[in-house]
Design a protein that fits this description.
Two copies of one chain form a homodimer.
Chain A (H helix, E strand, L loop, with lengths): L2 H12 L7 E6 L1 H5 L2 H10 L4 E6 H6 L9 E6 L6 H12 L3 E6 L12 E4 L12 H16 L5 H33 L4 E6 L4 H16 L2 E6 L16 E6 L5 H14 L2 E6 L13 H23 L16
Parallel strand pairs in A: 1-2, 1-3, 3-4, 4-5, 6-7, 6-8, 8-9
């Protein structure tokens, strides 16, 4: 079943008891990052429909009282066996919520606790609309449309048709920059990643997954709007900042950060969604697609960094290597 | 008017149109940190009542569609003139929402956009229940009680009566540790701050305010539950970690992080709310008070660090010093 069919069936099954009242987005690490754009979308666009986003273990330890038969719980795990995520889906079912799971592993334990499971595509050669970030966003857009309507629905569908092409062109556009970035930043031990709006989650994701986990390099995400309320005091000539500039309503915050960084920071790398052509998407929904673009573009940056540092992206010293 | 009277008046004024439907918590930096426990509380305990937390500039740039006459918008700014926060309160009023503002400055611009303003007490010699974190939490507890009821209400009131005493004893208990911490960590250039549940916001707050802003030291907050999904790969013998261990439902996540840190991290400072006596509070609400305790305790830690580093907590190079 596709996204539309899944949500249609979920809505129908809950019709008798008032339909979908809450959407819970539950996962860990990189998979949780893939849920942030959907959280941002619903917080911005929804009226009655509630949304909550949780790292799976917290969802299990401190379960929202409202979790129940009117809840749609979306759980994502790439390998599909992350214990906290499996436990979250199991708990959701026990509380009579409807679960939609996403995984890349068709034998995942997660699927045992799914009312609907989506086996997603993965890798640079896939269409990003078949990857978890876009699928989860689509699930929430479809849910909003069916629960209370969403005026930007057709524009969003057009965005889905356009984004992969924007990304393909963007990848070619940054190829040279990635190599240059890797040369300039290969010996850095700490990076700050800035962004805003729908992309803040990916600033966090690039920090904890691409740098901390995959490169064993210190990193921290800062919201472009929060930067001026404390964090900017560490800005200097030596500390590297990566700024992902959004197209859309929150761009003004990214631009303000850029102006400050250009004056006071010595090492800045800017990835600008507008310059990379995302403006081709409908204005009413373009902001929700910024992180989809950034994810693919930043994969090029991290690959170049991994290559020049001779630290393969798969290298781990703890994850899957020791007991924890 | 006290918290109870304010919410009673707000509820009464919205009776005719269905009462309070959403609570928006809006501020910047340290004031936003003070709102996190209230966000965590409502996300955990509320059924129909919705909650959203926003850095003020994002609230203004990407205003939630639902913001309107049924919205209670709580805005906090210590100096009361933070442009983004003043703009957020102004916008909320324009959208016919009810605003409750908190500030320490009785001549603050913020007050011009307040339906109700709370002038709060500040400083080590004040009772923490008169400080913004506890006041904002109380406003949300009172709102939940009046909108849909809260079974733990009496326990929460008891917690408010007890927490200041727990903190006073805790301060004495850690005095020696703070001096020792400062000696051991005075030359560190990067700290990771871990916590979970209601205290995650304060892990972020200690990182961006106490360390980045007030000490010009690099720092990053990590959720204890997320630590194992990427961040822990940077754990080594040299990188300092500060773990704030909660009493209550999410403690299990903090304990798991502690077990790992004790085995693989060389530099760890643990602040344990249970050991500091917070268990004296009613079990049904104790978790919501962890960050109130941690805030006061961590003020002792940062003061010791500022002292030994000869870097006064008031020192700024950008904030209020340059244009941005």
């Amino acid at each position: 079943m596709n996204v539309n069919e899944i949500i249609t069936e979920v809505s129908a099954s809950l019709q008798r008891i008032g339909g979908i009242g809450q959407v819970f987005l539950v996962a860990c690490g990189g998979s949780l990052v893939d849920m942030y754009p959907a959280k941002y979308f619903l917080e911005s666009e929804a009226a009655a429909l509630q949304v909550g986003m949780y790292t799976a273990n917290e969802f299990v330890c401190a379960t929202p009282k409202i979790l129940g038969a009117n809840s749609l719980v979306i759980v994502c795990s790439h390998g599909g066996d992350t214990p906290e995520s499996v436990a979250a889906a199991k708990l959701a079912r026990e509380r009579r919520a409807v679960t939609v799971t996403l995984t890349h592993n068709d034998r995942a334990q997660l699927i045992e606790h799914a009312d609907h499971n989506i086996l997603y595509a993965w890798g640079n050669d896939t269409n990003v609309i078949d990857n978890p970030m876009a699928i989860i966003l689509s699930l929430c857009v479809e849910t909003l449309r069916q629960v209370e309507g969403f005026a930007g629905y057709q524009d969003f569908q057009q965005g889905l048709r356009q984004i992969n092409g924007v990304i393909a062109a963007g990848r070619r556009q940054v190829a040279g920059r990635c190599a240059d970035f890797a040369r300039r930043f290969k010996d850095e031990s700490l990076f700050y990643i800035l962004s805003s709006g729908a992309s803040y989650g990916h600033a966090y994701g690039f920090a904890i997954c691409s740098l901390m986990e995959m490169q064993r390099v210190n990193a921290s995400a800062i919201h472009s709007g929060e930067y001026f309320h404390g964090p900017f005091e560490v800005t200097d000539g030596e500390t590297p900042f990566i700024l992902m500039m959004n197209e859309g309503r929150t761009r003004v915050m990214d631009e303000r950060a850029l102006t400050f960084l250009e004056q006071y920071a010595g090492k800045v790398e800017v990835i600008d969604a507008r310059e990379l052509g995302i403006g081709a998407l409908p204005p009413s929904v373009v902001e929700f697609f910024n992180p989809v673009l950034f994810y693919s573009i930043m994969c090029e940056y991290r690959a170049a960094l991994a290559d020049i540092r001779h630290h393969p992206l798969e290298t781990r010293r703890y994850m899957g290597q020791v007991a924890y």
